[in-house]
Amino acid sequence: MQTTQPTFCPTRRAVLAALPGIAILPVAVACGTTSKTDDSSSGSTPTNDASTGGAAPGGGARIPVAQVPVGSAVVIAGAKPYVVAQPTDGAFVAFDAACTHQGATVAAQDGLSLECPAHGSKFNGATGAVEGGPAKTALASVPVRRDGENLVVG
Fold this sequence. Notes:
Elements: H1 12-31, E1 54-55, E2 61-64, E3 72-76, E4 82-88, E5 91-96, E6 107-108, E7 113-115, E8 122-124, E9 130-132, E10 141-142, E11 144-147, E12 150-153
Antiparallel strand pairs: 1-2, 2-12, 3-4, 4-5, 5-10, 6-7, 7-8, 8-9, 11-12
């Protein structure tokens, strides 16, 4: 009598290949949920935590102006991470926080310095320009606008 593996039973290789995706699934689901209680027309403070990049109505992120001091850059974590900087008083700029070398999220250093934790690329937080490789392309600029005491990015 010959035995065969049922066709619905995955191979060990298929299971091992799927593990990274299975491990990330809870994070992806958590990042994809948004609160429907934010009513920006009421002038109330958003209920989302700005340090994780609260969702804005247009699909971008919100962060209080007070969290972006003059002369510094801040990374807004979330499903789509952004860098927001205030190079001079009242002037805000924003960039996609994905390093242009291999896509890791850059980290804010002192002042307007940004660095990729994966391979050490350095960027200028005021311009997005590359200041040290291996990245060769500047960070992509994204729109940012002030909405009362908040900034809406993306």
